[in-house]
Write a structure and sequence with these properties.
It is built from six helices and seven strands. With 193 residues, the chain is an alpha+beta fold. The chain has a domain of 135 residues. The strands form three sheets. Strands 5-7-6 form a three-stranded antiparallel sheet. Strands 1-2 form a two-stranded antiparallel ribbon. The longest helix has 32 residues. The N and C termini lie far apart (117 Å). The site of one zinc ion has 8 residues, from loops.
Amino acid sequence: MENTALILIAIALILLVIVIGLLSVLIYKLLKERPQAPVETPKTEVKNEPEYHPVVVERLKEAKSFKPKRSELFCPNHSDEPGEVTCSICDRMYCKACIKPFKTMHFCKEHLPLIMKHEWDEILTIKTSTTDPEQGVRLYDIKKNIFEKEQIPTYIETHYKINVDHDFIETYLVLFGIKENVDELKKKLKNFL
Ligand SMILES: [Zn+2]
Ligand SMILES: [Zn+2]
């Protein structure tokens, strides 16, 4: 009788051990398979692009819509160097070695002397805004045209003025030309405004 009781207790203990074993395996599996809490991706503002003038932003958008030729992507003097900076007179992209900063702009080796040698005068000033960049884009087109078709060099400088009363920054595009060409350029741009 006593033996039977002992055997029963032993069986009960063995069963208990088995049940505990199974339970722990189950719990382990459950814990392992529980889907991990989704990692919160921090919402970083994507602001890789430096703040360009609105007109330039428009041009960049335009430029992205068509594929430039390979030759337009590389420095005209170094076919294996990517063009990085645009000359303010010829609008071609040069590698860093081929372009020099001057005032707020950059000029290629061919056009920097032109800037230095001549006296430059203001031809036209227009006010631009983010909401209406159209006129600015037109001015850049005309400038490019005058250089490519008639070889008259000009450059456009961006001027900023803080409007104190209304606390915002006004942007002006100023077209400059060599003093001797001022009259001719003014005539060409008479109908612009
Ligand atoms: Zn140039
Ligand atoms: Zn170069």
